[in-house]
Amino acid sequence: MAEELRIVLRNYGKIDPLKIDDYIAQGGYKALEKARTMDPKALIEEVKKSNLRGRGGAGFNCGQKWSFAYQAPGDEKYVVCNADEGEPGTYKDRLIMENDPHTLLEGMAICAYAIGAKKGYIYCRGEYPHVTKILKTAISQAKEKGVLGDFDIEVRMGAGAYVCGEETALIESLEGKRGEPRFKPPYPPSEGLWGKPTIVNNVETLANIPVIVEKGAEWFASIGVPSYPGTKVVTLTGDVNNRTFFEVPTNTTIREVIYKLGGGIPGGKKFKAVQIGGTSGAFIPESNLDTPIAFDNMAAIGATLGSGAVFVLDETRQIVDTVSQITKFFEHESCGKCAPCREGTARSAEIMEKINAGLGSQKDLNLLQKLGRVMSYSCLCGLGQAAMIPALSTIEHFRADYEAKFV
Amino acid sequence: MINLTIDGVKVSVPQGSTILQAAAQAGIRIPTLCWHPDQAIKANCRICVCEVEGNRLLQAACSTPVTEGMVVKTKTPKVIEARTMILQLLLSNHPQDCLNCIRNGNCELQDLAAEYFIRENPFELKTRGYELDRSTPSIVRDQNKCVLCRRCIDACSVTQSVYALGLENRGAAAMVVPTMGEQLIESPCVMCGQCIHACPVGAIYENEQIDELLDAIADPDKIVVTQIAPAVRVALSEEIGMATGELPMEVLVAGLRQVGFDYVLHTNFTADLTIIEEGNELLKRLNEGGVLPMFTSCSPGWINFCETFYPDLLDHLSTCKSPQQMFGALVKTYWADKMNIDPSKIYSVSIMPCTAKKYEASRPEMCDSGYRDVDLVLTTREVGRLFRMSGVDFSKLAPSQFDPWMGKYTGAGVIFGATGGVMEAALRTVYEVVTKEELKDINFTAVRGMEGIKEAEVDLKGTVVKVAVAHGLSNARKLMDLVRDGKCDYHFIEIMACPGGCIGGGGQPITKANVKRAERIEAIYVEDEKMPIRKSHENPEVKTLYDEFLHEPLGHKSHELLHTHYTPKNKKYL
Asked: Cα separation of B283 and B269, whole Å?
């Protein structure tokens, strides 16, 4: 246990990402070749059976998602790679794209074959201009080699909006509109880009595909936690000795990530909390550290796996101050489309600032909780629904920290 | 059919229905704010959220399609808590000045706050401090009241294809702004005012000028003369608590006199006059190889649209001024002379269903009488307020007749208020002028109704005239693109900027749904049917005007007073 297992990062450091031949020498594009000998339905069934679940945060069964797009009637379908890695403290997708861009292209091409798409887009985070260069080089090499067949991939850049990581906001942005989520249903597999059936998959999800096709669903399904098999790339930040990344099987626990791989907390300080999954993740107390970093296991403790960011706080950190900063982040990143998120994120930032400044009371905390609850089930998209999780989880687990700030 | 249960009521609705539609069928009202009956679903206000069994998240009723066996609960504590808090959030940046607000008593947010008995707000009131945009003579925008429902953007972009409004910034700083965040006057806004109808609150409204009227009435040196547009009466009835079209014309005239107007005349008179001038212009173009198709020119929102987006097609526009401006030019010349009144003392007020009319009256060229032809334009809504303030009791008023020389009108003038009306009125006259025969059936029903684009052909005894009618500027745009590309062979096209024509104008009582527009259209044709004279060329006062003053259609005097020219509007960002 607590050992790295590299699937999506299997070629990390082994190949020159700018050389397609390096990738091919490692067996690259063989899976695509194999996939193309399969019946698309059987291929989708295989992906479904692997129980690969979306690595972007929503954890939806990938093969099932593909089957919706496959079944959706439409003359044109699209594969969109969500590379808008805007979650603070997360850089797993960048690692994959920087070091092994072809595994992403291969994953997309397999998906395209499965659902019947001829066109793909990679929506790359605006802050990753160097990554788009790598991707474009890889695409032109793949085209030159002819490995992609008649599947065309285009790279598009985001413009810095966090919400564009939400798949329908991403689609709106791709269409040249304001980056704002759409209401669902309809879901993208039936009506996505330009209203056509569209698969939006995260980079890490797609990077798993070639390996699943190559080694089979059973092999993949046997790794990690059965309900969320495979590996997860985690990126460690905050008060931890090894502030780096690891790819681990999903049955690895948070404690193992922090203390074994992460090397524990620097300076002999005590652990306070860990926020997993990105800015909207829950803050997890010591008592829950033996939870595996798998989707349902995290949900069971009221947390989320999200992007796999692991943000560690030692005993000296001010939880209330940290959460106050987070609420400001969401106030800034709310797109403004739906009323509860637009107004709610602004109000929560205001109340948190008041409490953090020592001017708050129990009444403010109660209001914050009620606001968080309402936002969690009435906002239009995941941003607003999750924006208050940090506040709610810290009020639950670290209430004394808030009370200490009261007037 | 899909079967579901809403609040325990079993209901069966067609596939593709939303929860909101199913609930309506079940007799359960779900509150809405961003939802609009004639617009695309937005699902952004979240007021309509409901519980759907099996879902952790509340579902927006407006956007969620029903599924077989669905169990919906619309008023659980969870739902009520969410709706209440969303309202409190919306109210927490909303100016708490309902008493002073132009939409007091007619505001969807105010209604919701009342329904959910919002007595207090746990959030601190923080208004946004935006400056009001009063850059146009027609429309005022107050973004402090905006609830970001985006209905105005939909009206401007989808219904009108003007695209003057868009969104700027994000989060709580998001706001609806004219093009590039500049003032409305810099944008391609055509001042049609459809955004006003779309707005659920007081964030967009007409430039209110009732005070100017009151000053004029109080001024002993001013003789206040008014004209009422064809579409006003049917809708004004709604403003004073009557059914659409219920207020009799003679009682309205009496009411206007009671408010203090010295003389009450009718725009319908110049509507009839327009038909004579425009009909003859059409015949002239047909006979002399003029530019065709000819476009009507009564709707100032449409004129603005043509000058902005189709400056290359301005030669197609009839040179006839709108009835309002024909009236303005005549009241201070012909009428003043007839009445032996010093024209410099005349204060000419028009009562219009239209916000763009305020702009039209202010156009620099509109002073052919030697004075400002129309001094003040009040919308139907403003006149409704005037009546309420004045305490006019219409149930007790003795009917009164219009004043002479410019107060008589025909059914043809009446139907100017509805889409297709100008066309029908013109056809009634053109047919008889050309064929010298009496029309057997004067009802050209093909050009009536709410369909966006209507077509008809009329055989003028050998000459077939092809006509088209569009209302709502997105429909106008479709026709204009055909004309621009030379892909149609129409001779005459009627365009009205507003959906339904003037009865749906930007100055009419707030009209959320097109069904209301259809109702007003019906009332217009009822009035037409009742008129003893229904053809413009039979209007006795119009005959007198020609006999004694104009002498002939398109003659020297007409050109001086009744015709105009158009100028391309070189708007930025187009």
From this structure: 21
